[in-house]
Design brief:
This protein is an alpha/beta fold and 409 residues long. The chain has two domains: 13-47 and 309-408, Aspartate Aminotransferase, domain 1 (Alpha-Beta Complex); 54-308, Type I PLP-dependent aspartate aminotransferase-like (Major domain) (Aspartate Aminotransferase, domain 2, 3-Layer(aba) Sandwich). The protein has 13 helices and 15 strands. It has helices at residues 16-30, 50-63, 79-90, 108-114, 134-141, 195-208, 237-240, 248-251, 279-290, 296-304, 308-334, 358-369, 395-408, and strands at 37-38, 102-105, 125-129, 157-161, 179-183, 211-215, 241-246, 259-262, 268-270, 276-278, 338-341, 347-351, 371-372, 374-375, 386-390. Helix 2 (50-63) packs antiparallel against helix 10 (296-304), helix 4 packs across helix 5 (134-141) and helix 11 (308-334) runs parallel beside helix 13 (395-408). The longest helix has 27 residues, at 308-334. It binds pyridoxal-5'-phosphate.
């Protein structure tokens, strides 16, 4: 008799964005003439940079020629892309990594979801709250999160609340947590940690023999000087941190699919005998078994992000989104809301009016101004009372949404 992995049955019924889609569909059926503006899901709207599409066209032509055709590529990724990453994302910031410490992926979701396979299921884990749902859900699937309590928290997950009261800066846990997920710049709050603040987490991990999974999917949006672009800017981080990056928001690759994961050779975890085991060869083994590489065409497209033209083109697009963020922040503040984020990240985190829940205010915005947002509580218990808006929309729609909200207020 085949027995099911019952941990899957513990997962909450449906994914946040399908709940939102259901509510939006119900609205559309009852209000067929209304024009909806979507500031909910974090997908991009600007097209791929020309440098990338040109590189991908060239790669397609290579695939059409028997002499330049490529079949299976290296599971870890092609050297040309790894070299570009090492030079531009790390060496330029004084971080030395070797090619075998980089693993090209099909995006940050797969790797943030799968990385927990490297550690025993019964490690304790911790997440900032609110949080990108993949970290907790993927740990529920392997049984590491425990069971769901009445307060909507998982029994084996330590939550680090990030709320107005603490300036969205998570406090270090009072007890030991083995596996910690940090995402900076943060989705959903749009806030960041300074070098000093991130250092506290690295030091905690060094002292407590913990491992940090650092999701830097929004690194390209950092504007302020004191914000670290990589966790490896912090001394000692190579011993305790895995960094995960994505080209999705950096270069509009949400539909192309490419990212990478850094597992330094120095990073180790213990076995029961107390021996230190390096995680880099384990991830290499895992990838060689379960992943057959990101497509050649995609990796050529990603390589082009690092060319002079590619850098210029992604900057224009990121500037466009960050101008949306600036407009949204200012207009929402003028309308009397308390808003956070949007300075080093494409997300605006809005405090809903006193006495209202996230979902109630989500529905008000939907029905009264026809704007789709994301209720903060969908990202974790401490997201209750907040709402996420994204700056990834078209400028005209963004302006119209702000106009509608200020007229309504
Ligand atoms: N990590 C965070 C924090 C995200 O917000 C997202 C996407 O929204 C991802 C990872 C997934 O990125 P990718 O498209 O590379 O899978």
């Amino acid at each position: 008799m085949a027995l099911v992995n019952e941990h899957f049955l513990k997962l909450p019924g449906s994914y946040l964005f399908s709940d939102i889609a259901k509510k939006v569909n119900a609205f559309k059926v009852t209000h067929p003439g209304s024009k909806l503006i979507r500031l909910g899901i974090g997908d991009v709207t600007r097209p791929l940079p020309l440098a990338c599409t040109e590189a991908m066209h060239r790669a397609v032509d290579e695939m059409a020629n028997a002499k330049t055709f490529r079949g299976y590529g290296p599971e870890q990724g092609y050297d040309f892309l790894i070299e570009a990453i090492l030079k531009h994302d790390f060496a330029s910031r004084g971080i030395n990594l070797s090619p075998s410490e980089i693993f090209i992926s099909d995006g940050a979701k797969s790797d943030t979801g799968n990385i927990g396979e490297l550690l025993r299921w019964d490690n304790s884990m911790g997440v900032t709250d609110p949080v990108y749902p993949v970290y907790v859900d993927s740990n529920i699937m392997c049984g590491r999160s425990g069971v769901l309590n009445e307060d909507a928290k998982w029994s084996n997950v330590t939550y680090f609340p990030c709320v107005e009261e603490n300036g969205f800066i998570p406090e270090l846990p009072k007890h030991r947590v083995d596996l910690i997920y940090l995402c900076y710049p943060n989705n959903p709050t749009g806030t960041t940690l300074t070098r000093e603040q991130l250092k506290k987490w690295v030091d905690y991990a060094l002292v407590n023999d913990a491992i940090i999974v650092f999701d830097a999917a929004y690194e390209a949006f950092i504007r302020e000087p004191d914000i670290p672009h990589s966790i490896y800017e912090i001394r000692g981080a190579k011993k305790v941190a895995i960094e995960i990056r994505s080209f999705s928001k950096t270069a509009g690759f949400t539909g192309v699919r490419c990212g990478y994961t850094v597992i330094p050779k120095e990073l180790t975890a213990a076995n029961f005998e107390g021996n230190r085991i390096a995680l880099n060869p384990l991830w290499n083994r895992r990838q060689c078994t379960k992943f057959n590489g990101t497509s050649y065409i995609t990796q050529r497209g990603a390589e082009a992000i690092y060319t002079v033209e590619g850098q210029k083109q992604i900057k224009e697009t990121i500037d466009y989104y960050m101008e949306n963020a600036r407009i949204m922040r200012e207009e929402l503040r003028k309308a009397g809301f308390r808003v956070y984020g949007g300075v080093n990240a494409p997300y605006i985190w809005l405090k809903v009016p006193t006495g209202m829940t996230s979902w109630k205010f989500f529905e008000q915005l939907l029905y009264e101004v026809n704007v789709v947002s994301t209720p903060g509580v969908g990202f974790g218990p401490s997201g209750e009372g907040y709402l996420r808006l994204t700056a990834f929309g078209e400028r005209e729609e963004c302006l119209e949404a702000m106009q509608r909200i200020s007229n309504w207020i």
